[in-house]
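[Q] Does anyone have a clean structure-token version of this?
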Amino acid sequence: QVSLVESGGGLVQAGHSLDLSCAASGSVFRLGAMGWYRQAPGKQRELVAQVSSMGTTDYGGAVRGRVTVSVDNVEKTGWLQMNGLKPEDTAVYYCHAILTPVGSDLPQPYWGQGTQVTVSS
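[A] Here you go.
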């Protein structure tokens, strides 16, 4: 069973930092592009950051300059480093990645289970 397992969420004070991780679990042959999204109550899911299989990064406007996305294709794990957190960053954060299972030639999209980030003022 292939899946993405997130960790690192929690409660932090405004101005502090938090790191999230997303690890591919199961028989995974290849980790391709990875993205981080967030969804706050009553709002649509939005892009936070993404990194392509070639290492090209892109950031959502609300977080640009405050977050860094990275991925280790050997470890099949990605990270989202967030600095200068604000109360409006409070949301459930989801990772999304393109994984190729062992024995398959077909890359498929997967979502992590989500992790809550709460920023207090």
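[Q] Thanks! Anything notable?
[A] The two ends are 40 Å apart (CA to CA).
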